[in-house]
Amino acid sequence: MTPIIARFLSNFIFLFHKKGNQTKCLPYLYPPHPLNFFTHKTPSIRSIDLHLSTTMASSTTPLLKDELDIVIPTIRNLDFLEMWRPFFQPYHLIIVQDGDPSKIIKVPEGFDYELYNRNDINRILGPKSSCISFKDSACRCFGYMVSKKKYIFTIDDDCFVAKDPSGNDINALEQHIKNLLSPSTPFFFNTLYDPYREGADFVRGYPFSLREGVSTAVSHGLWLNIPDYDAPTQLVKPRERNTRFVDAVMTIPKGTLFPMCGMNLAFDRELIGPAMYFGLMGDGQPIGRYDDMWAGWCIKVICDHLGLGVKTGLPYIWHSKASNPFVNLKKEYKGIYWQEELIPFFQGATLPKECTTVQSCYKELSKQVKAKLGKIDDYFNKLADAMVTWIEAWDELNPSAEITNGK
Fold first, then answer.
1. Which of 289, 319, 345 marks a domain boundary?
2. Which residues on adjacent β-strands are paired with residue 73?
3. Residue 17 is part of which domain span?
4. Residue 208 domain-assigned (yes or no)
5. Does the pTM of the predicted model rise above 0.90?
6. How far apart are CA 402 and CA 324, in angstroms?
7. Do 279 and 205 share a domain, yes or no?
8. Nearest Cα to Cα of residue 296 among 217, 187, 206
9. Where are the beta strands (DSSP E) in 346-400?
């Protein structure tokens, strides 16, 4: 009998003896602990519930209040924050102003925030500021770099609070936090989706040795109303709206890429932050609207290599404004052709076992970008160089503990 099965059986007997006809048995996932037998929940989920209950009891201490920054790229006044006030006001905001730095961006009263414009970016990064895009929402990644918090939630300024099928406002930030604090299951797909959610579990046939899951690095949310379509699809379906609310969260399997959207996204900055680079887009570049997808392909390859998880599904936000499909087509048209070669590149990308940190993985990936994608267009040579510059700038602003301690 294998140790994992023996542990399962011993825990099950104890549970049956204590709880009579109670049949739900999550405790076998972990080394025996008395609390597990009575809560019937994994430690990670129990800790979330305890943290949430504590939060409910104390309105002055929201979940992860001192551990999370909200990053918002913008070119306009942030009136949209009024709708998010009940959920966002307790948190610190990092606003990255794109475009004309002399323009005054108005932020509603009562929010704690820092605002950076292009002049600030140039001042802080010096020559390395060349890696931060201009006149494109990709500039948001500067906010990831200057943050000192463990977690990041980023949202676009045309995204509002959505409602669930019962008509209740959706606290997108809270759901992202739940996603990040519970494990992912990238190595084996669970047909009931996220087994750590209330009312779900691992299905029959799911290996017991994989049920503890892995740390979740990224939580990718979705959108009601205006879907995140490319320009050709926008032109074909100009009136299409997403009204389907799917109450599900799932882990994207290892080896599977996905088109990441940056308008409703959260991640563990300590686990994957250095790879959350949104590339060279916008002013002076031959491509746009591929910033978040580029980052998504990079982080997925690295997460797969390092054994980290990526979740998608809940939460939903209400995406209010459809961008101009003709303008989008001008930005996207090269990317539409290039992605037919980019996707196979990322699908085949492998990282050596010596790459044990996000930074080393990302630098290795930049070498492969230059060697294999540089043949497509010189843009990818510039992008590969910018990836290295990004890591250098990240490390300068976020020195490691060894460097800080002088060891």
1. 345
2. 96
3. 3-40
4. yes
5. no
6. 48
7. yes
8. 217
9. none
Judge if 115 and 226 occupy the same domain: yes
- Rounded to 10°, the helix 358-368/379-397 angle is 160
Total tally of structural domains belonging to the chain = 2
Do 206 and 256 lie in a common domain? yes
Alpha-carbon gap, residue 153 to 178, rounded angstroms: 13
**51 in any annotated domain:** no
Using DSSP, state whether 230 is helix, strand or coil: coil
Q: How far apart are CA 318 and CA 234, in angstroms?
A: 18
Structure confidence by residue, pLDDT tens digits, 144-194 = 999 999 999 999 999 999 999 999 999 999 999 999 999 999 999 999 999
φ and ψ at residue 112, rounded to 5 degrees: -90, 120
Peptide bond into 315 cis (omega under 30): yes
Same domain, 182 and 232: yes
Determine the average pLDDT of the residues in 228-232: 96
Query: What is the identity of the amino acid at 319?
Result: H
The closest of 232, 241, 261 to 332, measured between CA atoms, is 232
Residue from 173, 407, 383 nearest 267 by CA = 173
**CATH number for the domain harbouring residue 120:** 3.90.550
pLDDT digits (tens, 9 = 90+) for 74-108: 999 999 999 999 999 999 999 999 999 999 999 99
